[in-house]
């Protein structure tokens, strides 16, 4: 009896030591993840391009106006969707501000903490799946120091929480694979979190669907998928009902609606898709539209398919500039729609295949994207036009600016180099997939990753409003697949 009691006490002690040991390691990993982000916050704080609209909505929430924009003419509360994507980020801002006295640094730190916690969950889930501490260590290192993820917390923007939500969802998918059972409620909640922060995170349903069918089979997978869809869509159902009640012109933010809630010029946007192939062509063509600053619209010569088109567009733009700061007239928008339709009918292959393919390629190969780093050239550095010229092959511009701003150039170069290496390793990992042990779980992670990359790339390549940074939520998927695949193959050879 005494021996049994001793054994029980000893086992309890050992269990306690293991829990303490693991917790100690989690604390260390948490600190390692959070520390470099705090440094970026302290040394290089930024607001971001969408700061104004998010903070306006957040202020209105705190002032009892609900999710709304203040009418500049009457100062009355004008119901709104909640920013460019949804109500999630303004609600987050208002909550943090209410606790920490409108501190933007508190916002930056809290979103960094949320990111770190989601990383811990992915690290744990990966270890449960692989039972390999080496994989866990490498994942922790990349989540902490990946050049494409590390700098975003310095912005008061959606990216950090969007990445955190993606990592949390990925962790739930990995855990589902490990236990061979779909975690329906957790995945549904993760999708709600992700899409309320950014609407384009709706493409996370693609790897979710792939994983569900892979684990459960097609018939059972459909049922499980519908249950997840019910949980996921319930929050958006409530939000849709609210938007109907307050008489918003659309159920959710879309290309049909401007940031201020007014009608978007869909005909003009359709016309821009007949020629825009680089994100640095967007500022001149699109930013003035969003801000109703029609005087700032600039269109390059290559946009026009004929002299007739150029003359017609220039005439419409002159009419538009007279109406600066007013809503985009439907009459002018319809004329742009007619020009676009004629152009598409004359060359549908260019519109549906050639230009989207070019946009897809440039989304992934743009060497100038900062990915949140404070390496944007100063005002006297690379302008949008110079970036565009450099992207089209004018290397002399790059050489001159690199000599003038060597630190900025080196930082950008290292960032771009890492992206190239990551894409090469992804391709290599795909090849090694057929030679690795424990092929099953590597295979499903590849399916998750490739399906998510494909869906986001196709969507943004079919639009004129695209940026390389819109691909940032694919990075945790890619890095996880590369690490698991490479380590599996390497240790098999050992």
Note the total helix count.
19
N- to C-terminal distance: 48 Å
Number of domains: 3
Report the C-alpha radius of gyration, rounded: 25 Å
The total count of strands amounts to 2
N-to-C SSE string, H for helix and E for strand: HHEEHHHHHHHHHHHHHHHHH
Low-confidence stretches: 5-21
The level of helicity is 55-70%
Q: State mean pLDDT (0 to 100 scale).
A: 86
- Please describe the biggest sheet, giving its number of strands, its sense, and whether it closes into a barrel: 2 strands, antiparallel
Derived structural class: mainly alpha
Strand content: under 5%
Largest sheet strand order:
1-2
Overall shape: globular
Topology, element by element:
Elements: H1 2-43, H2 51-62, E1 68-70, E2 77-79, H3 88-100, H4 104-130, H5 133-145, H6 159-179, H7 184-197, H8 205-216, H9 218-245, H10 266-272, H11 282-290, H12 307-322, H13 330-346, H14 348-365, H15 384-391, H16 395-404, H17 406-432, H18 439-461, H19 475-493
Antiparallel strand pairs: 1-2
